[in-house]
Fold:
Amino acid sequence: MEAEEKSGVPLPDSTLASLRKTKVALKGPLSPSPKAAGPFQKSVGVYLRQEFDLFASVRPAKLYPGATTLFTAPLDVVVVRENTEDLYMGFEFEANRRETDLVLEAMQKAGGRRLKPGYGLSVKPISKEASRRIVDFAFDYAARMGRKRVTAVHKANLMKATDGLFLQAAKEVAKGYPQISFDDKLIDSACMQLVTQPGQFDVIVTTNLYGDILSDLTVGIAGGLATAPAANVGEKAAIFETLHGPAMKSKGKNTANPTAMILAGVLMLRHLGEREAADRLEFAVSAMLGQRGGQDSRTLGPNQTADAVMAALQ
Structure:
């Protein structure tokens, strides 16, 4: 909203020019503008993902010392989520509309099964090209970050035409990375095992809807959004941010928790190849959390958090 007041649009041309030049951005939580129209009507975040084809959503979840959580088993997992396909593409057909009845009729002719009027439809497009691209990204990410295993999550036993295609692509890509272990799990089983045996997971690669669910599940196990960074990555750019939204009621009060934003910076440093700097910063955040009661931002404002992280870096 502040950008719109200054430049007339929620996303200024200068910001876009910078992102096209550097291919990297550290993006703070943004409030939607009530005046936004045109390409920014949904949100600046959606516009950026579409404009730069940020097909991979990278969401780490790590159980840091002092975290407020019900779980004690070690957790250090990265969910790699395909960002462009699946049910989130928005092919929706409301019940009892003419266009929906036409789609139902076409489905009946093609599938030989009778469907009565009154159904609502959501179409789930999955392509082999996008599936191979996201799985290849996950394996490459695992190799670059020194991780040992990639797990493809799906429901191919029931949805053979879509999840089956994704699983087939995953198995084909896995053959090109013999140094990385590969396995696959059904989505329901993966959810249960993340709660009961989280240590077996390293990098999870999956489709859009499952990735949305699993990333929230893993972050919940790790204690919540306070330590949850995220990245949206494509060949044209990479944008690093937090999973949580803006804390507008904390503006100017020194009460917000900046930990996830700092950890987004850690992700960005690793992406840029600054491994040593990233490790130092993450170690400092971990030390601060352990000393200050984990993710309890009520006792530690952003200025004090920054001071504590800086002290741990010395």
Observations:
- The chain has three domains: 1-51, 52-85+126-313, 86-125.
- The first helix runs from residue 2 to 7.
- The two ends are 37 Å apart (CA to CA).
- The longest strand covers residues 56-62.
